[in-house]
Amino acid sequence: MEQQLAQLHQRLQEREVELAQLAAAVQELTANQNTNLQFGQLATELQQITMQKTSGDPRDKIPKEISWINPAKGLLNIHEIKEQTGFAEIQLDKTDIVSKTNIILHVINTTEILDLITDFRTNAENLDGQHKDLILIELRHLTNKVRTLIPQETRHKRGLINLVGNTQKWLFGTMDAQDRQDIDDHLKTLDLNIHNLITTINQQVEINKNYSETFKQLKEIVKRDREIILNRINNLSMANNHCYDQMFKIHIIKSRIEHIQDNIASTRYGLLHPGILTDEEIQKYEINLNKLAYVKVGVAKSENNLLLFAIKIPKEYITVQLKMVIPVPNDQNKEIDYPNEIVFSLNNSVYKYEKLKYLNELSISKHCMYKQNCNLIKNLNTEILELDTETILIKNAKQLEIIQNCDSRKLILSGNQLLHFSNCQVKILDHYFSNIKEKSQDRFFYPTNQINQNFTDKLTLDDIILYNAENIHKIEELQVHRKITYDCALVLGMFSFPLAEDVLEAPDKTTSGAITKNYQQAIDS
């Protein structure tokens, strides 16, 4: 590999020398106007060499295996984790969480839309047969579309409709119970006769009358059209113009109804339709891509065929530091029996973090570490966990080779290791990790420096099997030991029995001394 790199480097130097020579020749030929042809040839050759030189990094021509080992301008930091508690707290990135919101209500009166279609139908009846049939068919389709907006149609007489209390029946959407209660509490009244939406006391809930105003304007236009049609204009071209004009206005209503249908369908599946916010709302609330991810929508049906779209928009954020509580084996290869959890601290409380949730939707963490009631289980396996695109956690590494092109180090790791890398590639066993971040925030863990006495060892089936195997081995050793002891005692008994008979027959001191000597020799043997 080093030889190939040297050859490529030498070729590059040779090309640079050629380029310098050609550049000098071009300068000489430029002074002579009679050598245009030679100048053109040299310029073409110079351009080709320049393109070859700038067409790419020479390292791109190196085989993949060589480029993998070739050091890149990357960063690789390694932290050894020697926690005895069975877990570690690893710092992640900071993030913004929505703390305050605004709520917009779009109120749609489907009864008013049906009345508008009825006015169109009256106008169509005054046209001739050819135009009338076409318009009536289109109006029939519109009527069916409107009837699908609300599950059950119950038409009521016009009047002042009280929306306060439990008259709203929430159909679907991403609004939570507290949002719905806030809207029910602050929603005031809608006067259908004058189409005037009364301002709410709580300015966090804003009612948008865009839909009502649109249908109101169309209704006034249709009434004026009726007066013109009733003048019985006999001119054929004028009649055609009136027909086209009515069809154009009908299509305006149709597009608005389909727009409402799309919003309902999107909300049913928890999606945000891009057209649910008006241009004025987008500008007023400074809606951007980040805010769109947090926008929530709910759809409710109220009395008298009123349809409500409640749109919740982020207003204020708070920035919090995230950290991950993750099981990590200690020196006894025991770790807490609890899944990974991302948390953050705020106002002396620890919250469980869930992406795209508002602050009031997040709950206090119930992690066993904070409640001091974790169970410890044995983990002897080597595990490789990718915490994010630039952080890797290795558990129970056993002389594990790390292949990387972040720097020139040759790494063999053991134990628990936290790897943080950027702008390079890392290979661990059969796992490949890479990113192209030139700047990144370093990762580190918070050492606990304590042994949690309240944690309880939890026996697993593997532990029981291992303990049984160890006990059986100890029992076998004890049985062998007892057998050896018994055999020794038996041999001593065999020696001592005839000696005892000799003592009975010869109790004199000489014999007694001989017996004692023989007995001692037997023991020594």
- From the alpha-carbon coordinates, what is the Rg to the nearest angstrom? 43 Å
Helix share of residues? 40-55%
Indicate the low-confidence ranges by residue numbers: 33-37, 53-69, 153-167, 188-205, 480-486, 488-492, 499-507
The beta-strand count equals: 20
**Main beta sheet:** 8 strands, mixed
SS-derived structural category: alpha+beta
Question: Number of helical segments?
Answer: 13
**Mean pLDDT metric:** 72
Give the N-terminus to C-terminus distance in angstroms. Answer: 71 Å
Shape: flat
Total individual domains: 4
Beta-strand level of the residues, as a percent range? 25-35%
Structure write-up:
By secondary structure, this protein is an alpha+beta fold. It folds into four domains: 2-69; 75-96 and 319-457, no CATH class; 97-316, no CATH class; 461-524. Helix content is 44%, strand content 26%. The protein has 13 helices and 20 strands. The strands form four sheets. Strands 2, 4, 7, 8, 9, 11, 12 and 19 form an eight-stranded mixed sheet that branches. Strands 1, 14, 15, 16, 17 and 18 form a six-stranded antiparallel sheet that branches. Strands 3-5-6 form a three-stranded antiparallel sheet, with no helix packed on it. Helix 1 (2-30) packs antiparallel against helix 2, helix 4 runs parallel beside helix 7 (210-229) and helix 7 (210-229) runs antiparallel to helix 8 (236-268). The chain is flat and about 95 Å long. Residues 33-37, 53-69, 153-167, 188-205, 480-486, 488-492 and 499-507 have low confidence and may be disordered. Residues 5-32 form a coiled coil. Keywords: Coiled coil.
